[in-house]
From TrEMBL:
GO CC field: cytosol
Reaction(s) the record says it catalyses: ATP + H2O = ADP + phosphate + H(+); Couples ATP hydrolysis with the unwinding of duplex DNA by translocating in the 3'-5' direction
Entry binding sites for ATP: G221, V222, A223, G224, S225, G226, K227, T228
GO MF entries: 3'-5' DNA helicase activity; ATP binding; ATP hydrolysis activity; DNA binding
Organism: Hymenobacter psychrophilus
EC supergroup of this enzyme: isomerase
Lineage: superkingdom: Bacteria
Name of the molecule in the record: DNA 3'-5' helicase
UvrD-like helicase ATP-binding domain residues: 200-530
Record EC number: 5.6.2.4
Coiled-coil intervals: none
UniProt keywords, alphabetically: ATP-binding, Helicase, Hydrolase, Isomerase, Nucleotide-binding
InterPro entries the record matches: DNA_helicase_UvrD-like_C, DNA_helicase_UvrD/REP, P-loop_NTPase, UvrD-like_ATP-bd
Length: 689
């Protein structure tokens, strides 16, 4: 790149910054004018209140609201302009239509339209033309618009990093997409929550983000492949593409816990979108059960599995996480409808209602959920009797009819029906419903499913796009519930290797059985960890398809200690070493909550935070937590204490170890007392320095 080019680009940047400053000034002026008008209007109303009738007041109120709304829009615009001024664009494409001269397109996080020049100075990364930045190198290219494909040639593709209004570097990319820039981005340390990746979105990721066709999109991607990032960018894309019909409030994110929800909460605002409503699975469950039942949470279920190896408990979970369970529930629903109804003759005064009449009325409502039909049939039978008798019915006659309809079906409540299901399949031992005890987590969604099928639930009909993260931890019955509650488009993502409960893990294939129309995308490139860390984690749960990005760092270390005291002292030392390293975040990830508390006690420092299932926000710096809660998060450095064979021995333990180790970006250390866990063979492990 020549100095002249650099000079030109610097001048162009200054010019854009100037235009942005002028635009900010214009917004400021208009805001000032608005508030002035608003003040005058309010004063006017105040003074003339007595002479105004109701219609005048309503009109005045509306005009104030309109002004306030316009004022808010101006504030949002100003915020975007100021953000652009820090980093106006990250890419440029020179694109020529056939037979025409090439024109530059600068691409940034938002678009910037200069009203004075009537020109788009910056294109939003989501604009149709910007897709070529991610999809093509130099040469022939095209982009799709709602009215068809536009073809042409890319003559130049340039990348920039502009921070605080200063050009830090720029690169012409004529070979492969952004590898250099991507490397630089990934090598940085993270001190914060998940960030936007607009400048370095990869081609396969872009295809997922911009997919407009899939009604259900399932993304199965290895650890660190950018699933969560992509899903959030996809939401931003959909909000832009369908801005006339979808707003932030029409989207729902189902996340595994509050900490995760907080961890991902920055990305959309960074992309200029509002905060998206989110629900934790358990909140959804409580809502759907009408807060009638106390139930075990997923976290408690997993903790119970970690604490004790109880075959009957495992068997219950395993069965209720199978696709077969869902099929049997469906069969049972058909069965009760066909076999549990007894239609008997009904006498009301001198009128006889034959069973066939009742049955025919009942069957006519086959689209209505079973338990909702009885009232409707009762109404019809009342009409029938009234008609036959040629008079009004007494209160007592009406209740005779209602009671008789209630006796048509021998089970009263959804819970009774659920209990009966286990008798029907001949496995009553699979349901543990002790008086006063909490409902087991594995039963929660089965009960909800029956409730939806038998009583109908119409909540959440307003949602226009559903995002489900950590899909591996939800079972077919949970997906069946989601499918019935949310008829909208869905993006579902996760990694079956990162389950925290191997007895209830769902793979993309399982989910496809519930959503046969799903488009399944698989991502194998891993961006988070160094090659050394990825190679290490592959020893726990191998995946021959994983492709780590070529980025190197120190090999993971395993430190053997002589006794608990020494191990805790080692953790203390490693934490001190972290404080003086260049890294910004350290995750000390344990298997159980108890171990996390123990490590926390031992460290006792003001800059160390303990994250528990009660925590509601992500903290920066040094965090002690469990693998379950660390799922989905990442840290510059990860420390896994107690990596002995005593701690990590079962299948569930292995999942935890894999999740814990895959959280590390640059550095990973494990400590243990006694024999090292069998999930890590000793070979290739570097001894600690
Ligand atoms: N195209 C990209 N450019 C820059 N960084 C990227 C890109 N794709 C992913 N990353 C980074 O890789 C890391 C992992 O991303 P993310 O957490 O979205 O992955 P994930 O697949 O959801 O991970 P996991 O399943 O292991 O929790 C993040 O730091 C993210 O910023």
């Amino acid at each position: 790149m020549t100095n002249a080019t650099l000079q030109e680009e610097k001048e162009y940047l200054e010019e854009i910054k100037l235009q942005l400053t002028l635009a900010v000034r214009r917004v400021d002026n208009s805001v000032k004018q608005f508030s002035e008008e608003l003040r005058e209007k309010k004063e006017y109303i105040h003074e003339h209140q007595s002479g105004m009738d109701e219609a005048d007041m309503v009109a005045a109120g509306q005009s104030i609201n309109r002004m306030a709304f316009t004022g808010e829009a101006a504030v949002t615009r100003k915020r975007k302009l100021l953000k652009l001024a820090q980093s106006p664009y990250f890419g440029r494409l020179d694109f020529a239509l056939p037979g025409k001269a090439a024109a530059p397109f600068y691409i940034g996080i938002y678009s910037f339209y200069d009203e004075q020049r009537r020109a788009n100075l910056i294109y939003d990364w989501r604009a149709p033309v910007s897709s070529m930045f991610y999809d093509f190198e130099l040469g022939e290219a095209f982009y799709a618009t709602p009215s068809g494909k536009v073809r042409g040639t890319i003559g130049l593709k340039r990348q920039y990093r502009i921070r605080d209004g200063r050009l830090e570097f720029m690169l012409d990319s004529d070979i492969n997409i952004h590898d250099d820039v991507l490397q630089r981005e990934l090598a940085k340390s993270s001190d914060d929550k998940l960030k936007n990746i607009v400048a370095t979105i990869q081609r396969d990721q872009n295809a997922v983000i911009r997919n407009e066709d899939a009604s259900v999109m399932v993304i199965q991607g290895v650890a660190g492949s950018g699933k969560t990032s992509i899903a959030l960018h996809r939401i931003a894309f959909l909000l832009y593409r369908y801005r006339e019909t979808i707003s932030a409030n029409d989207i729902l994110i189902i996340s595994p816990n509050k900490v995760f929800a907080d961890y991902i909460s920055n990305v959309l605002p960074e992309l200029g979108e509002e905060h998206i409503p989110e629900l934790v699975m358990e909140e959804l469950a409580a809502d759907l059960l009408g807060n009638q039942f106390q139930f075990q949470t997923f976290f408690e279920q997993v903790s119970a599995l970690l604490d004790r190896h109880e075959p009957a408990f495992i068997e219950r979970i395993r069965f209720k996480s199978s696709f077969d369970f869902l099929s049997q529930l469906n069969q049972y629903l058909l069965h009760i409808e066909n076999s549990y109804l007894t239609f008997k003759e009904l006498r009301v005064g001198s009128i006889v209602v034959p069973p066939a009449v009742i049955e025919q009325k009942f069957r006519a409502y086959h689209r209505v959920p079973l338990l909702k039909r009885f009232d409707l049939v009762a109404q019809d039978v009342r009409d029938y009797v009234r008609h036959a008798a040629g008079r009004k019915l007494s209160g007592r006659e009406k209740s005779t009819i209602s009671e008789a309809m209630g006796r048509l079906f021998r089970l009263r409540s959804v819970l009774d029906i659920y209990r009966d299901f286990y008798r029907w399949i001949g496995r009553p031992e699979l349901l543990r419903l002790e008086q006063g005890a909490k409902l087991e987590y594995a039963d929660v969604f089965a009960l909800i499913y029956l409730r939806i099928r038998l009583e109908g639930v119409s909540a959440y009909a307003h949602v226009k796009h559903l995002l489900v993260d950590e899909m591996q931890d939800y079972t077919p019955v949970q997906y069946a519930v989601l499918s019935r509650l949310f008829s909208c488009r869905k993006t579902i993502l996760g990694d079956v290797s990162q389950t925290v409960n191997p007895y209830s893990a769902s793979s993309a294939e399982t989910i496809e059985r519930v959503f046969p129309q799903a488009d399944v995308v698989r991502l194998y490139r891993s961006y988070r960890s160094t090659v050394e860390i990825t190679a290490f984690t592959q020893r726990i749960t191998p995946n021959p398809h994983i492709i780590p990005l070529e980025r190197h760092g120190p090999p993971p270390a395993i430190v053997r200690c002589n006794g608990l005291e020494e191990e805790l002292e080692t953790v203390r030392q490693l934490t001190s070493a972290f404080r003086s390293s260049g890294n910004h975040s350290l995750g000390i990830i344990c298997k159980t909550q108890r171990q996390a508390e123990q490590a926390f006690e031992a460290l006792q420092a003001p800059d160390v935070y303990l994250l528990t299932d009660e925590s509601s926000s992500f903290k920066e710096g040094i965090i002690i937590t469990t693998a379950h809660l660390a799922k989905g998060l990442e840290f510059d450095e990860v420390l896994v204490p107690f990596a002995s064979t005593r701690t990590y021995k079962t299948e569930v333990d292995k999942s935890m170890l894999y999740v814990a180790c895959t959280r590390a970006m640059h550095q990973l250390t494990l400590t243990h007392t006694g024999e090292l866990t069998g999930f890590l063979s000793q070979q290739n492990v570097a001894e600690p320095a």
